[in-house]
Amino acid sequence: MVATPIGCLEDITLRALRILREADLILAEDTRHTRTLCAKHGISTPLRSFHAHSNNDKVLQIVEELANGAHYALVSDAGTPVVSDPGVYLVSRSADAGVPIEAIPGPSAVLAALCVAGLPVRRFVFEGFLPRGGGDRSRALQRIAHSDVTVVLFESPHRIHATLEDLERELGSERQIALCRELTKMHEQTIRGTVSEVRGELSNPARGEITIVIEGRAADAAIEDVDLDTLLMEWKREGLSNKEMTQRLQQDLGWKRNRAYQAILDASKPDQT
Fold first, then answer.
1. How far is it, in rounded angstroms, from Cα 145 to Cα 139?
2. Which residues of 101-130 are buried (b: 16+ CB within 10 A; e: fewer)?
3. What does the mean pLDDT of the chain come to?
4. Which of 13, 177, 183, 253 has the fewest other C-beta atoms within 10 Å?
């Protein structure tokens, strides 16, 4: 299971390149797409198409070949295989047949977006692509609106404005999001703010692959649930400044900046009793 670049073709590990060269065959979601990557890195391994529409007979054929000693590399068009990409069924059937399966980690649009979003990442859930309509979409939007952890979505440029409109209706005016477009590519863009602010800044029509990071509804932890004095004492022993401690409270607990800074100031005041 080989992770491949989500944009920049240089974003691939040395191990991944070695595995792609050593494999008997590369199973690719789109052989044309993967052939470009292979050409970039001088890889001549044969390619075979394997995608979401591959039938059960093809899966069983591949599993039989693997069980007989074949060494295949599975890749998606971009990122880590089986994350909103085909491959789960093949992995499951291969595991049932006793075929050894190895993960060759690397690029992930989910993790890349979380890195640059500027929102709490201590806990998060990945929702993939939203259902396109009907009750399934309504239930998914309500689940996101009531989620107390950060949520990550994928969306296509053709549906992003409709999705932002739905999110604005469900999330209200205060929830923060980050919209990450064309991650690792030349025209990479991250827009942060409320849903309405992001909608106003995003071009129409939008272009490129899009990942959305959504702040959890209950991200603001209650101060009574945190032993702040002990926490700050530990951080001060580590040599952290007030600014650095403010950033840690934002990142670790999901507090707003003003609240975090005020809590640190209040905790630093001498006891007047």
1. 10
2. eeebebbbbbebbbeebebbbeebebbeeb
3. 90
4. 13
- What's the pTM value of the predicted model, to 2 decimals? 0.76
Q: CA–CA separation, 12 vs 150, rounded Å?
A: 27
- Other Cβ atoms closer than 10 A to 184: 17
Buried b (16+ CB within 10 A) or exposed e, 188-206: ebbbbebbeebbeebeeeb
Structural domain total, the chain: 3
Computed from CA positions of residues 67, 69, 70, 75, in that sequence, does the dihedral angle turn out positive or negative? Answer: positive
CB 147, CB 217: distance < 8 Å: yes
**Is 116 within a domain?**
yes
| DSSP, res 104 | B
* Measured distance CA(61)–CA(215) in Å, rounded: 44
Show the domain range for 149: 109-214
